[in-house]
Description:
Elements (H helix, E strand, L loop, with lengths): L4 H29 L3 E7 L15 E6 L4 H7 L7 E5 L10 E5 L5 H21 L6 H8 L7 E4 L5 E4 L1 H35 L2 H6 L4 H32 L1
Parallel strand pairs: 1-2, 1-3
Antiparallel strand pairs: 3-4, 5-6
Amino acid sequence: RVKKKSFLIMTLLAPVLMAAMILVPALIMTSHGQEVKRIAVIEDSGHLFEGKLNSTKYLKFDFLSNIKLEDLKQNFGDLGYYAILYISPKVGYMPDAVRLISHKQPSLEVTEYISSSIEKVIEREKLKTYNIENLDKILKTVETKVRLKTILINDSGEEKETSTGIAMAIAYISGLLVYMLTFIFGAQVMRGVIEEKTNRIVEVLISSVKPFQLMMGKIIGIALVGLTQFFLWIILTLAIVTT
């Protein structure tokens, strides 16, 4: 099995395919994220968010007035807009009163930024009803950002900084590899049994060995093939990453 062309091809191509599965989506998301997206904003509640919904380097908001949502839906793509952001007057007490209409699925980064920006504007407007002096200055003063660092400490007291995101990614990838190996090499055991049964080789083998010994030999042999391929994948992946 180790000398088969299929084994050699999969051993060489699997690390490349795995790298492509991880890197290609990230590159696509990065390339899409660098495109400037113009979003038309229609606000039925007046001008509460105009001038307060800040644009970013790749996200521009254009507040439109005297235009109906249904009319804009027909040709917003032709006008150069990536999406339509419709803000209902009920946004203050209904969380789902905001709609983002687009021809393509918006990224999580876009939706999260819009949601958080609208939430901050509404929170500021609600705080203003309490007639607090210098409200904007107070909010800027108390605004705080926290970045949590995770540190592992061993029995000897040595500390090492870790990353929860990297740990989760390794766990997911390892779980996926275990599932793939079990599925692929389990199927090989099944195909081997079917081939021997179809060719009537198994009757000859059983005359010399016990069925349990035959099956254990098959399972152990294919397991060693799988482990060999797995370790080769690790070596090739490390070589690709370090080069």
